[in-house]
Design a protein that fits this description.
Strand order of the largest sheet: 3-4-2-1-13-12
Helix content: 10-25%
Radius of gyration: 25 Å
Number of helices: 11
Structural class: alpha+beta
Oligomer: single chain
Low-confidence stretches: 1-21, 480-489
Number of strands: 23
Shape: globular
Length: about 500
């Protein structure tokens, strides 16, 4: 049965503008990790996403492992959207969530969605991957990550699939440290994972429950005395001696272990495994292999605690200390649970819901834009845009026309190159021409988005406006709407 929505904590209250020295805002982050065991997606993922919750999420992060990557399917998925991404995207689009970024490395998939209202404030988006399987040359194990700036705060999401089997706990830690050391970003402010203000580490981490026998483990599960197993959880054990792991926090494992289940069942592993010479192997012990942890960047030490001969903090450390003081960031975990109703895989999905409380470093988009006058396919149209702050404009910037409910950056009706199609400008307002040939004859509710090529993100979104049906098309009985073109590289 699916866990119910979390209950309010009587010891916590919403931040008050009157009580706080700085205004702070709260954002709800919904995270999912699931090893899908190469299976096709279910028909409905709304229970997994708590779509009907009275508290809607601002951000969704979906991390999957073992997405099917056979040769034919993988090539197809490189050209067309894979079935898992397609399902999540189509689920979110009607709810005004946009796919901001995604990355796939063979069976590892990471998806990041945001409410439309936050899109102009999500910047510096980058994604990368690291292979650890078969000496680093095969992508069946490793990590994919997405990093970005959210209202000025640097966030990084790291989806991992680490080495399997009970005896490889140390190897899993080595792989994690290798990933943390290897992954870098083209970002001066946060070139490494540990430079980010907030890091989420999640996925099929494959840590097992050791020492205890099968009977004891299953008895604890049946009695819901999960705490009796925590001291033998390998991740908790490794955290006691690994400094890097100690920097990560995790909520209590007050839910059923998510591995290993018989397929299409809620029963833990009951199969007999054949080993060498026809002997039967052991059944897999239940374990919390699927986890979500987080790390807030440790505060820079004050000047009087610096080592060596340095009498003051260097410029970067001083800047970091000032930023943490002026723009605080807090994280609260509101829910951490397994979702038991899905049984297509030998793993159950895990959900973590967090509240991010932060003070925005900026709350004004870089560009304001709007549709000028009436829009229809009967007359050429104009877009007005105004730079509100300096930004690195280029000849590759473009403005896209999107239907309300669009799903991703490439889901536009048409676009126009800003510099090529500017028809008039002054210091405050620019005009950009849009040909009537590019406007849909059927019309509909639309928005305009300004894409900055240098920043590789949308930096302005217009208010929704009505594109009118073409009178000429109606009178002449013309077929409406040309096919949507793919974004050219």
């Amino acid at each position: 049965m699916m866990e119910t929505e979390e209950q309010p904590d009587a010891h916590q209250s919403e931040p008050s503008c009157k009580e706080e020295p700085h205004d702070r805002d709260s954002f709800r982050l919904h995270m999912v990790t699931w090893n899908v065991a190469t299976m096709d997606p279910p028909d409905d993922v709304t229970p997994l996403l708590h779509i009907n919750s009275p508290k809607s999420a601002d951000l969704y992060v979906i991390g999957l492992q073992e997405v099917y990557s056979g040769p034919v399917r993988f090539v197809s998925d490189m050209i067309f959207e894979d079935s898992w991404s397609g399902l999540f995207t189509s689920t979110f689009a009607p709810l005004q969530y946009i796919k901001v970024s995604s990355i796939r490395m063979q069976g590892l998939l990471l998806l990041f969605f945001s409410k439309l209202e936050h899109i102009p404030f999500i910047r510096d988006i980058q994604a990368t991957y690291t292979r650890t399987g078969i000496c680093g040359y095969w992508g069946n194990k490793g990590a994919v990550s997405v990093r970005l700036s959210f209202y000025g705060h640097t966030l990084c999401f790291l989806n991992c699939h680490l080495a399997a089997h009970m005896k490889y706990a140390s190897e899993r830690v080595d792989e994690f440290e290798y990933i943390m050391d290897r992954q870098t970003f083209d970002c001066k402010k946060a070139p490494r994972i540990t430079d980010h203000r907030l890091v989420f580490w999640f996925g099929d981490l494959n840590f097992r429950v050791q020492d205890h026998g099968m009977h004891f483990v299953r008895t604890c599960i049946n009695n819901e005395t999960y705490n009796l197993l925590w001291s033998s959880d390998q991740l908790m054990m490794m955290k006691k001696k690994e400094p890097l792991l100690q920097e990560f926090e995790e909520g209590p494992l007050d839910f059923q272990p998510t591995y290993k289940f018989d397929l299409n069942s809620d029963n833990y592993d009951s199969r007999c495994y054949r080993t060498w010479f026809g002997f039967n192997g052991k059944k897999r012990k239940p374990a919390w292999t699927d986890r979500i942890l987080w790390r807030i960047r440790p505060k820079a030490p004050p000047p009087d605690e610096q080592d060596g001969n340095d009498s003051c903090l260097d410029g970067e450390k001083m800047k970091q200390l000032d930023e943490e003081e002026e723009y605080p960031l807090k994280v609260r975990q509101d829910l951490y649970t397994s979702i038991m109703e899905y049984n297509i895989s030998d793993h159950k999905p895990v959900v973590g819901i967090f509240t991010l409380e932060l003070r925005k470093m900026y709350d004004t988009p870089l560009v304001r834009l709007q549709a000028e006058g009436d829009w229809s396919a009967d007359i050429d149209a104009l877009v007005l845009y105004s730079p509100l702050q300096p930004f690195p404009a280029s000849t590759w910037d473009w403005i896209g026309l999107y239907k309300v409910g669009f799903s991703s950056l490439s889901d536009y009706i048409t676009y126009t190159w800003v510099k090529d199609d500017e028809v008039a400008f002054n210091e405050e307002v620019m005009q950009v021409f849009v040909s009537k040939e590019e406007i849909p004859v059927r019309g509909g509710e639309c928005v305009l988005c300004y894409y900055c090529s240098t920043l590789q993100c949308i930096i302005g979104v217009s208010e929704p406006f009505k594109v009118l049906e073409s009178r000429v098309a109606i009178e002449e009985g013309l077929l409406p709407d040309k096919p949507v073109r793919l974004l050219e590289n």
